[in-house]
TrEMBL record:
Function according to Swiss-Prot or TrEMBL: Involved in the gluconeogenesis. Catalyzes stereospecifically the conversion of dihydroxyacetone phosphate (DHAP) to D-glyceraldehyde-3-phosphate (G3P).
Pathway noted in the entry: Carbohydrate metabolism; erythritol degradation; Carbohydrate degradation; glycolysis; D-glyceraldehyde 3-phosphate from glycerone phosphate: step 1/1; Carbohydrate biosynthesis; gluconeogenesis
Species assigned in the record: Marinobacter azerbaijanicus
Catalytic residues identified in the record: 95 (electrophile), 167 (proton acceptor)
Protein name: Triosephosphate isomerase
Name of the gene this protein is made from: tpiA
Amino acid sequence: MRRKIVAGNWKMNGSKDLVNSLVGQIRSELASLDNGVETVIIPPALYVGDVLSQAGAALTVGIQNVSCWDSGAYTGEISAVMARDAGCSVALVGHSERRQLFGETDEQVAVKVGKALASGLDAVICVGETLEEREAGKAEEVVSAQIRKAVADVSNGQWSQVVVAYEPVWAIGTGKTATADDAQAMHAAIRGVLKELGAPAEEITLLYGGSVKADNAAALFGQPDIDGGLIGGASLKAEDFVGICRAMPGES
């Protein structure tokens, strides 16, 4: 059975006050949730320790980016080994903001996937097309190419650490979201690519991200190939984030 995951990416937002007020509230409100969802908090790296101290066993903590290197003279970088040592269990890799704002290439994403997996982190590999690419009819082509390059060096024993998050670039932080049917179509295509590559595709968790809210989460999570969400802005408000977690099918 595939893991059901709802991950909150705080991006460059947060403070000690936010950690203290938000994480404990989320942990408390999800304590009675029994729909099998795995809840992940991914704060800025400076607050990983603070989040871990509040998370307890109920919440998993991740890091937003890892370096292409393990150690050395790379000022400002944080290696996957360090993230694991600090207590993280998950790493985002290849988020569209990293690709667009910092010029991260498919080749760099592949290296980072390898570093994350080798360190023992689960890699949440982010893929997605721009509005221009979608309007040109190239969405599946673009996303398929991103996946093929990102997982090219994943070994058979590492697939259980791989999660793929489909985030159409045009839906991130815009208030726009793909319809449930459109999102499902892309997720099915992603699973098809993974199967072609020899991965245990039916066992790999696929997430949708891009303006997910409590009022559209149920329709998205109800699709057969969507196993959860990568949440941005809504993860900064306990009520919104918990509402999304509760939308996962299976809650009694």
